[in-house]
Amino acid sequence: xxxxxxxxxxxxxxxxxxxxxxxxxxxxxxxxxxxxxxxxxxxxxxxxxxxxxxxxxxxxxxxxxxxxxxxxxxxxxxxxxxxxxxxxxxxxxxxxxxxxxxxxxxxxxxxxxxxxxxxxxxxxxxxxxxxxxxxxx
Length: 137
Known about the structure:
The longest helix is centred in the first third of the chain and has 34 residues. By secondary structure, the protein is an all-alpha fold. Helix content is 78%, strand content 0%. The chain contains 6 helices and no strands.
């Protein structure tokens, strides 16, 4: 009985740790916008709004992946982490060029990403923090 309780606690805590890492991915995206001077002045309410937005985004992505994987929680956690990681990394790169997050019109132009000039430009704009972010996966 005691061993089952410890196993359940470790399973629950690992679930929350992975969701916290997903939230950290999106928080780093917002921090990247802040340090790139896209946001002029930050207020306390903006920080609260960002934290609430990140929480809601992680919950929505997790719930969608949870129902799409027919309630396989481990697979849905992996999908949630990968989606938030790709989302935040692509927004950081896009933010460096256009000073705002990815819009729907930019997503529609995804095919132009494979142009050699754009690929070279993106590779040249990578910074040390981006490389660390890539290897954090």
